[in-house]
Amino acid sequence: MSSAVAVSANTLKLAIPIGAGVISLAYLCAKLFNNENARTEYENEKMIPKVSLREGDSTHDSEYNEDPDAFLLKCEQTYGPVFQIQYLNQTLSVVSGPTMAREIHMYEDLSFRDSVEHMTGYRAFIQSVIKSHKDVNTTIHYQLIRECVSTKLSSFTPEIIERMALTLEQQFGSSEGKEPKLVERPLVALQNVIAATIAQIFMGSEIAENAEVLQTFINCTHDFGLILSQTGKTRDTKKILRTKAQYGYLNAMHKHRQVLVEAAEPIVEQRRQQERLASEQGVEYDRPHDVLQTMLDNVEEYGFVDLEDICGHLILLILSSMHTTLEAGMNVLFYLAAFSDTIQPLYEEIESLFDEQAKGRGEQRQRHREKGTLSSFENTDLDPLLDRKISEFVIKKAVKLDSFLKEILRYRIARLGSSHLARNDVMLSTGHVIRKGENVIVNMRSVHQDKVHGVDLTEFRPWRFVGKNSGAAKASKDFMTFGLGKFTCPGRFLAVHDLKILAALVVTKYSNLVPQDEKKQLGMLASPLIYSSETGLYVTSRHNSHG
Ligand code: HEM
């Protein structure tokens, strides 16, 4: 088992929950308010215990921020699975343990979306960029991701690898000789890599090369981040009203949508022409398989109004995917740097899978030669040049890679998260009642440090999940990075696939990653999307043929 060499996990333990917790709470929790009119009396109702304040404190902020894990553990042990704290100027009902956390995700009347809306007013923004599916309970994006991406994920693999490898080289480059190369703005560099990769899947290769479109992917995500983080220390009604106006009728996103429309129009026309031509010639049209094409092919079934509406929905998919994948991608880079003794085992795993892959492909070529079905393999699927390249086979079989990623996602999670707003009174199985209009939040410490995950739960152990047969994309009551239940993130399979390909490309391309400013490294592990805390990254190339 690897141990941390560059950063002690104990130091991390302190850094992560504070940064991630504050950010998550800032936009995912809503202030409790009373709604006496709708009050239902329950015979067996239990009062939610209020956590007592430390002497001299008027809220729980300081005690939580000093050591979130210790504070939450103490609360669980003293008060049981449901308790109330005063944090960020709010009264929060907190539930603990995988079973209670799952329960919160199962009630129709507890809504994650309503909670985010209550805190940020984001719905006005979303509804102003689309013309169809404005119903607050719509599940169209779940359907789209499932049908256009998840069910055919492996067909995207070669182009994801190609696009990511190309943009990694363009954005991060290679070092010469033994001297490492400084990537001054790794966040900006990775933004470009992730934008190009997601654009490839959503809109196809021509559009993924359009610089203006890529900038739009980046800018609209940045603009949306401003809405989500605008709440500051507590819910601010004035700010929310301003947001509703700005993102309703004054929505700057309309210009981002227009960029997509203008880029898509000629491509759509060109594809229609090619399809007509193929039909005239009686040959099968080689249909592009990006999300845009599937949306166009099923426009009536999906109920889209026009290309502008389609591009509006694409903007919403970009917002769900870019920010989250970028943040986790930055984690991948900086965990590799902080826990630098993980790089070599990950590299060796991939090298050994290359050996296995080359052997299998060699045998296939031999069979072709024997049968006389194929003698030259150049530019075919069995081209020997591809024997030692990252592929679906390698990504699927790389168990250390999967474990490394899952451990990052387990470890870095905000200690309080997945806030849900009650649409009606809800009595929990414990007898505690969450009243209509109140928020309940999950104690993720108790979920992601549950004993089911083994020992040393407060430490980063990259190989924790090896042999556990529980992939990084699998949502469960003890792994809630992607939510749980009916609304579990539909993009998790793509996200995990992209992140594993990113990590595989990085460890085969570079033998070492070192942050330019060691002091800022902790911030990059906890909240990597904060520009002011960004630090450069030194990369040392392997100088082999895989990059
Ligand atoms: C590491 C990357 C990602 C993380 C951590 C993440 C996490 C989440 C979480 C926690 C939710 C809320 C689940 C709930 O309601 O309980 C969510 C929803 C969602 N995610 Fe992801 N996600 C990631 C990547 C992606 C990607 C790549 C896509 C698209 C391809 C995507 C699309 C969506 C959509 C469409 C929703 C539903 C939004 C709504 O309509 O309410 N996500 N995600």
From TrEMBL:
Classify the source by domain of life: Eukaryota
Which keywords does the record carry?
Iron, Metal-binding
Q: Which SUPFAM superfamilies match?
A: Cytochrome P450
Aminoacyl-tRNA synthetase found in the keyword field: no
Signal peptide positions (record): none
One Pfam match, by short name?
A: p450
What is the required cofactor set for this protein? heme
Keyword Iron assigned:
yes
Its family?
Answer: Belongs to the cytochrome P450 family.
Name of the featured protein: Cytochrome P450
Organism of origin: Linnemannia gamsii
